[in-house]
Design goal:
Residues 134-149 and 390-395 have low confidence and may be disordered. This protein has 2 domains: 6-33 and 182-386, MetI-like (MetI-like fold, Orthogonal Bundle); 61-170, no CATH class. The longest helix is centred in the middle third of the chain and has 37 residues, at 181-217. It is of the alpha+beta class. Helix content is 59%, strand content 10%. Helix 14 runs antiparallel to helix 15. A hairpin with a 2-residue loop joins strand 2 (91-102) and strand 3.
Length: 395
C-alpha cells in the first residue's frame, strides 16, 4: 500500500491560513503555560496571593504596596521548581495610600477603599525589613561596626523605599479575593492543556489497543468489544466523566483519568473501522504469508497507515477534553480550590455578569472559547491534509 507523502500533507495543511493561525495560538498558549510562574505577576503557588482590600478592581488598576518581611525562613526553590510549582513569597503585601519615616519607624495608611481613609499605623523598620538593629549585641567590636553600618536607620529606610515599596499594576484586574486575574488565567491555561494532553494520551492508548484488537481479530472478540464500545457510546460524555469522578474522587489526576476514559470510545470505533478496511489488503496478506506475528502486523503495517485519521480525532478530542474539564470545574468536580482553572473561575464570578464586573467571567470564558476554536480549526486543517472523511461524534 502506498503511503501519503508527508511533505504533501504538510503543504496542504499550511495552505490553510486559519488552521495555521490556530496552531500558532496553541503553540503560544502552550509556551505561556510551560513557563507558568516564571512570567506570572503573582509567582506564589497557585497564584493565590490574596489582597482582600483589592477585590474586584478593574483591569489596569495600580496600587502602592508595602512588602513586609514574614517571620521565619522561606524556602527558596530553583528555576525549574519555580517554573513548575511557584515560589512561596517571603513578603506580606499591604496596599497603602501614604507612608512616612520617623527615625526607626515607618507610618503608613493602609488602603481600605477608594473613599475611606485609614488611620496611621506604625511599623518598626528593622522588623519589616528583616534587618538586625543596632542593638543586636554583636560579640566583637569589628562585628559591631559592620552591623551598625548595615543596619543604620537611613540605610534601612532607603532599602525599604527602593525594594519594599513597589507599584503594582493588575493588568486584568483582580478577582473577589484580590488575586491577580492575569496570573490565574496563565496557570489555568496550564491546567486545561495538561488535562487535554494527558486525557488524549490515555484515550489513544486505550482506544488504539481496543479498536485494533476488535478490528483485527474479529469474531467473538469483535462482538464483545463492539458491544462494550456501543454501551459507553450511548452514555453522555459529561455524565460518564462525572460518574468516573465520583468513583475516583475529586482532584486533578482524577480528572486526567476520568476525561481520558470517557473519550477512548471514539478512538476505538475509528481504529476498528480502519483496521477492518486494511486487514484484507494485499500487503497485509503478504505479511501473514511471511510469518509475521499479529503484533508486528498491527504495529508496523496497519497503524502507520491510519495515522492521519487518528491525529484528526486526537485534535478534536483535545478540544473536547478542555470543555469537559471546564464543565467539571464549573460543577465543582474538577481541581479543587485554590487551584486556578478556567471553569472554576467562571463559577466563582458568573454572578458578576449582570453588574459592572462581567469581565471576571468573560475573560476565562473567552480563553476557553479561543483555545477550543483553535483546536477545531487545526482539526479541519488536518482533516483536509490527510483527506479524512468527517466522523460522527457525540453531542
Amino acid at each position: 500500500m502506498t503511503k501519503a507523502n508527508p511533505s504533501s500533507n504538510q503543504k496542504i495543511f499550511f495552505q490553510n491560513k486559519l488552521a495555521v493561525a490556530g496552531m500558532l495560538l496553541i503553540l503560544f498558549t502552550s509556551l505561556v503555560a510551560v513557563l507558568g510562574y516564571l512570567i506570572t505577576p503573582d509567582g506564589t503557588p497557585q497564584a493565590n496571593d490574596m489582597l482582600v482590600q483589592l477585590g474586584l478592581k478593574k483591569p489596569g488598576a495600580s496600587f502602592t504596596i508595602l512588602r513586609i518581611k514574614k517571620q521565619g525562613q522561606t524556602d527558596t526553590v530553583n528555576v525549574i521548581g519555580k517554573m513548575l510549582f511557584g515560589q512561596p513569597s517571603p513578603w506580606r503585601n499591604v496596599p497603602i495610600t501614604h507612608y512616612r519615616f520617623n527615625k526607626d519607624s515607618i507610618y503608613i495608611r493602609e488602603y481600605i477603599g477608594d473613599e475611606d481613609v485609614a488611620a496611621e499605623t506604625a511599623y518598626n523598620i528593622y522588623k519589616i525589613s528583616g534587618k538586625r538593629s543596632i542593638a543586636a549585641n554583636p560579640s566583637t567590636q569589628d562585628t559591631k561596626k559592620e552591623v551598625v553600618k548595615e543596619a543604620s536607620p537611613l540605610a534601612v529606610q532607603k532599602k525599604i523605599t527602593d525594594q519594599q515599596i513597589i507599584k503594582k499594576t493588575f493588568w486584568l484586574g483582580t478577582d473577589i479575593y484580590g488575586r491577580d486575574m492575569l496570573s490565574r488565567l496563565i496557570i489555568g491555561a496550564r491546567i486545561s492543556l495538561a488535562v487535554g494532553f494527558v486525557s488524549v494520551l490515555i484515550s489513544l492508548i486505550v482506544g488504539v489497543a481496543v479498536g485494533s484488537a476488535a478490528g483485527y481479530f474479529g469474531g467473538k472478540t469483535d462482538e464483545f468489544l463492539s458491544w462494550l464500545m456501543n454501551v459507553l457510546w450511548a452514555l453522555p460524555a459529561l455524565l460518564l466523566v462525572i460518574a468516573i469522578s465520583f468513583a475516583l474522587g475529586k482532584g486533578l489526576w482524577q480528572i486526567f483519568v476520568a476525561v481520558g476514559l470517557s473519550m477512548w470510545v471514539e478512538v476505538g470505533r475509528l481504529v476498528r473501522g480502519q483496521v477492518i478496511a486494511l486487514k484484507q489488503v494485499e500487503f497485509i496478506e503478504a505479511a501473514r504469508a511471511l510469518g509475521f506475528g499479529h503484533y508486528r502486523i498491527v504495529r508496523h503495517h496497519i497503524l502507520p497507515n491510519i495515522t492521519g485519521p487518528i491525529l484528526v480525532l486526537a485534535a478534536s478530542n483535545f478540544a473536547s477534553a478542555i470543555l469537559l474539564e471546564a464543565g467539571l470545574s464549573f460543577l465543582g468536580y474538577g481541581a479543587q480550590p485554590p487551584t486556578p482553572t478556567w471553569g472554576a473561575m467562571i463559577k466563582e464570578h458568573y454572578g458578576y455578569i449582570v453588574i459592572d464586573s462581567a469581565y471576571l467571567a468573560i475573560l476565562p470564558g473567552l480563553a476557553i472559547m479561543l483555545i477550543v476554536y483553535a483546536f477545531n480549526v487545526v482539526t479541519i486543517g488536518l482533516r483536509d491534509a490527510f483527506d479524512v472523511k468527517s466522523q460522527n461524534t457525540r453531542v
